[in-house]
Amino acid sequence: MPRILAVDDDPDVVRLLRLLLTCKGYDFVPAANGDQALQALGRQPVDLVLLDVMMPVRDGLATLAAIRSSPPTRGLPVLMLTASGNEEHVRRAYELGANAFIAKPFAPSELCSTISAWLAPPVPAPMVRSPVCVL
């Protein structure tokens, strides 16, 4: 069962994400800020991170930079989930290596399909047969 770390300082958003994700069969790991998120990542591996941008203690952009700078978490899918429509935040998040940016309020179906897409195993390329030349 995939494990998702949800990082948000709004308890209502955390409750909604817990309900939505556990109903979909995911293990749910909450964190209220970037420092808690990095501590959680050090304790247990996760398969994907949902990360708010504007939080106390360590914001989402600083947390994303820390995730991308650490070899064990560098390749982890990180989906920014935030009410900030600030274009600078979006640009900076992608520069730092965010995989997707989902605006709050979000449609649960959109969030779930985006998560599923990032957790899906890669589709192998079709095998190409080289022509056989018979002399």
Q: What would CATH call the homologous superfamily?
A: Response regulator
**CATH architecture descriptor:** 3-Layer(aba) Sandwich
CATH topology category name = Rossmann fold
- CATH class wording: Alpha Beta
Number of domains: 1
User: What would you call the structural class?
Assistant: alpha/beta
Rg, rounded, reads 18 Å
Strand count: 5
Strand fraction: 15-25%
Helix content: 40-55%
For the sheet with most strands, the description reads: 5 strands, parallel
List low-pLDDT spans. none
Strand order of the largest sheet: 2-1-3-4-5
Q: For the terminal residues, how far apart are their CA atoms?
A: 54 Å
Specify the number of helices: 5
Mean of the pLDDT scores?
89
Question: What's the overall geometry?
Answer: globular
Please sum up the structure shown.
The chain has helices at residues 11-23, 34-43, 60-69, 87-96, 108-119, and strands spanning 3-7, 27-31, 48-51, 78-82, 100-103.
What does this structure look like?
It contains 5 helices and 5 strands. It has 135 residues and is α/β, with parallel strands linked by helices. The chain has a single domain (3-118), classed as Response regulator (Rossmann fold, 3-Layer(aba) Sandwich), CATH 3.40.50. Strands 2-1-3-4-5 form a 5-stranded parallel sheet, with helices on both faces. Strand 4 (78-82), helix 4 and strand 5 form a beta-alpha-beta unit. The chain is globular, with a radius of gyration of 18 Å. The model has no long low-confidence stretch (mean pLDDT 89).
